[in-house]
Structures are given as C-alpha cells and as structure tokens.
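DM from R.C. (forwarded with permission)

"hey, sorry to bug you on a friday — could you get me a structure for this? deadline for the figure draft is monday and I only need the backbone to look sensible"
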Amino acid sequence: MGLHLRQGDRHDRDLRELGRKQVAAGYVVYGSSTILVYTTGNGVNGFTLDPSIGEFLLSHPNIRTPETGRLYSINEGNYNSWERGLKEFIKWMQEDAPEDDRPFTTRYIGSFVADFHRNLMKGGIYIYPANTRNPSGKLRLMYEANPMAFIVEQAGGAASTGNGPILDVEPEALHQRVPVYIGSPDLVERAKRFLNGETS
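My reply, with the result:
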C-alpha cells in the first residue's frame, strides 16, 4: 500500500515543515567505494562500506568542508538562460588571476549527490539556479535541497537560494522547487553578492 497525498490536504500540510526542523539527513554515494554520509544535527560523519564484513565503518569523522575551494559544478549548457549576476560570477571564477588562485576548475557530473559530495570534501560550490525554463529552479526543496542544506551547514558550509538560506524557506507545496547555491561558505556568499549586483 503506497502513500497517496493530494496537494493541500491535511496530511500534505503536516509534512511541509521548515528545513530547520529536520532531525537527520544523509546520502549514499557509490563508485570505487560506497560511502554513507549523515548528520543528526551534531556534525557530519562518513562511513565506508567494508564488503568483506558487510558493515559500514567510520572513515570520515567530523567532516568539515573547506572555507573556500577551486571547484564549481553547474550545467553550463544553460548559460544563455541565466540571470546576469550568475553569468558574471561564472566569468569571475574563470578569470586568469593567479594571485587569487583563479581560474577555478569546473566539475559537473550531473548527479546532485556525487557533485555535492566531491565539493563537500574538497571545497567548492554546486549551483542549480533558476533560469528562463525553470524560474523556480529544478531541485525539490523538501527532499533534495533541504537535506543537503542541513548536511552542509552541519559541516561548516552554506546553502542558499541566492536570496537567503535554503533551510529558512517556508514550504508551500510538497514538490516545491528552489534555486540552489551550496558548498563552501566563502563561495556561496560570493555568489550571493554577484546575484545582488556586486562585482567581487
């Protein structure tokens, strides 16, 4: 038996809580190894699967994302549909400025979890912005953006819609979408400044 909710019914309203009220969030990323990363609101820890015993072992205690980084993840094929401030931010990251450790490197797999995990560990920013085709962004607030925002904040990072913290967005619908700027706090803050018309 599945759970069937109609938009706006009582049960739907019960599920629409602020991201700040989350008590736990996590994800699993797999490839050459399988890693479970999660938080219960007291820091972030990572566990790597040991196939020989079938158990996840603590391998990344107290994960802290770097204050800044040199990686950015965004689908640049959508460049022409972005607002001007975001275009300027991307150009800034691509500029040749060795004294400022630029240009940055773009790494975009197209998987939110995989891109987020790499940037969490190495420092960087993941962006899925609003654009002319998706004026509210594409990622879902309740079950994509909020959990990752909870994790990144617990790891010392930041998560913004471009206007304010993702975790403070009042949910209006279960499948509501939001723009996402998430990762190292310095880069998220810098992205917000560009979106607000500042140039650096």
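R.C.: lifesaver. Confidence is low (pLDDT under 50) at residues 1-5.
me: no worries. The two ends are 53 Å apart (CA to CA).
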